[in-house]
């Protein structure tokens, strides 16, 4: 089974990927949070460059993800990325954010299948790298997926990663597993599953329904339980010492990256990591108020000294 880390803007960047791999072992594959392609003729700059800088991704199998509806920029970005040594690029057709959708990107591209077809035709013909797609199953309702899947099946995709929710769902409701199953049945290329795999029971249910599953992308589950991939491979749950070590390394690495106070960054991580503990609400209250580094470090010490880990850590909602 291939386990990959989901692209999560603001969270699963190069720092998180490296520290997580050092502490819990590398996953089989990582997808960068979405990147806007550079202008034709230019390279990635600033924050985007940090994401794809080969030095920061050493030893990991990383697939850069692009968010765009501009075929020329997409094709150019594949050239830049191929020159940097990348072997695949991923197209984001799932981002549900209002501003992205309004511009016809991410899940918003699924509203206009004529344009999407033209885009896919061009990028599949002209790109230097094989293209995988991460998709939702529609904008408003499941019925849209019939045409969307039929469209994908006409292109030589490297892989199709299905998050079987529509844009309108955001992250609410239950993923439509049967639409993933339909994709497995019909797609002429490899298919991956993504959505709500938070524990070994979820994985067992997925495999029972679809034993031919070969690649599962993990997002919030791994943020809430950093040992999730290890457990899905038959290994141990995280110990408190491992979790503390991971926390300390992540905090240090973010401080180094930011060049200052990384408390805000860490609070975002805690909004998921609190689910590693038996009482997530107590943990949430303990770290919520800290602003200065000293206050934060004290709060974290207290959490680890007083709070036990959950017997079955799993993401429990935003
Ligand atoms: C905060 C946040 C940021 C995300 N950023 C991205 C992104 O940059 N690109 C993308 O394709 N999906 C993004 N996603 C969606 C995740 O990759 C994934 O599809 C979603 O969380 C469902 O998987 P899960 O149930 O395993 O978390 C994001 C989700 C969240 C919650």
TrEMBL record:
Keyword Nucleotide-binding found: yes
Active site: 95 (proton donor)
Group of enzyme by EC: oxidoreductase
GO molecular function annotations of the record: flavin adenine dinucleotide binding; RNA binding; tRNA dihydrouridine synthase activity
Entry function: Catalyzes the synthesis of 5,6-dihydrouridine (D), a modified base found in the D-loop of most tRNAs, via the reduction of the C5-C6 double bond in target uridines.
Homology family: Belongs to the dus family.
The protein, known as: tRNA-dihydrouridine synthase
Organism: Enorma massiliensis
